[in-house]
């Protein structure tokens, strides 16, 4: 059975950031509580169909059947299967960004290594809790606009790292370029874990090594 989309804390997805919402080609905005519930049901059903059948076999008919609503009801909210998957991606990536930024905020005055550990720990938690979704979205990400999504997410993470460098290592030159390189390296390692060795996401050594990678790089460029 497919688990519901989760935050690391176990609650349902938070609202995605406004900068990502514009990507959802949604016909009817879920303002009322009933409409919000219908949207959530449709997204849960989309995830379940994706995990079970894959993106090529995903259809609005299958999603509607899984959600227990008519196809006409689905079309009131989403015009096609692409818009359903886009909404899933927005929720997922929005959750990653929010989790990382909140983690950084909680350790606002901590040393660089502690801040980085908290940030990476939050990110790995989201990856663990939504592993099936990560794997299910791999195909759709390659098919349409995946680069655009990853660019926005990377920019958000780079911004968080830049703030950490400004606070902890103000003497580092070209902080944005250094932060971008650090994020790229960390993202590569985490992506390898997600798609090739998911058990790494729960291993203490993996978090330790990611922190060592980030801290070692930061100390090197500081000198």
Jot down its keywords:
0% strand, elongated, 223 residues, mainly alpha, 2 domains, Arc Repressor Mutant, subunit A
H/I helix tally: 11
Rg measurement, Å: 19 Å
Q: Tell me the name of the CATH class of the largest domain.
A: Mainly Alpha
Oligomer: single chain
Into how many domains do the coordinates divide?
A: 2
Helix content: over 70%
Q: Within the CATH hierarchy, at the fold level, what is the topology of the largest domain?
A: Tetracycline Repressor, domain 2
Question: Which residue ranges are poorly predicted, with pLDDT under 50 across at least 5 consecutive positions?
Answer: 8-27
Shape: elongated
Describe the structure.
The chain has 223 residues and is an all-alpha fold. It has two domains: 18-83, Homeodomain-like (Arc Repressor Mutant, subunit A); 88-222, Orthogonal Bundle (Tetracycline Repressor, domain 2). Helices cover 72% and strands 0% of the residues. The protein contains eleven helices and no strands. The longest helix has 26 residues, at 81-106.
Reconstruct the topology from this structure.
Layout (H helix, E strand, L loop, with lengths): L17 H4 L11 H21 L6 H8 L3 H7 L3 H26 L5 H18 L1 H6 L1 H6 L2 H23 L6 H22 L7 H19 L1
Give a brief outline of the structure.
With 223 residues, this protein is an all-alpha fold. It has helices spanning 18-21, 33-53, 60-67, 71-77, 81-106, 112-129, 131-136, 138-143, 146-168, 175-196, 204-222. Helix 2 (33-53) crosses helix 3 (60-67) and helix 6 packs antiparallel against helix 11.
């Amino acid at each position: 059975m497919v688990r519901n989309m989760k935050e690391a804390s176990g609650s349902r997805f938070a609202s995605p950031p406004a900068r990502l919402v514009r990507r959802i080609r949604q016909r009817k905005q879920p303002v009322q509580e009933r409409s919000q519930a219908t949207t959530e049901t449709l997204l849960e059903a989309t995830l379940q169909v994706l995990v079970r059948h894959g993106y090529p076999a995903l259809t609005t008919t299958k999603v509607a059947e899984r959600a227990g609503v008519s196809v006409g009801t689905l079309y009131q909210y989403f015009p096609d299967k692409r818009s359903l998957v886009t909404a899933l991606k927005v929720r997922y990536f929005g959750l990653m960004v929010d989790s990382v930024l909140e983690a950084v905020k909680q350790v606002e005055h901590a040393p660089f290594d502690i801040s980085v550990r908290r940030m990476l720990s939050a990110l790995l938690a989201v990856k663990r809790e939504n592993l099936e979704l990560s794997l299910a979205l791999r195909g759709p990400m390659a098919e349409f606009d995946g680069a655009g999504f990853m660019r926005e997410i990377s920019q958000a993470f780079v911004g968080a790292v830049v703030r950490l460098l400004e606070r902890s290592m103000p003497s580092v030159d070209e902080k944005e370029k250094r932060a971008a390189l650090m994020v790229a390296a960390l993202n590569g390692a985490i992506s390898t874990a997600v798609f090739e060795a998911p058990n790494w996401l729960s291993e203490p050594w993996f978090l330790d090594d990611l922190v060592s990678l980030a801290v070692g790089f930061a100390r090197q460029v500081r000198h």
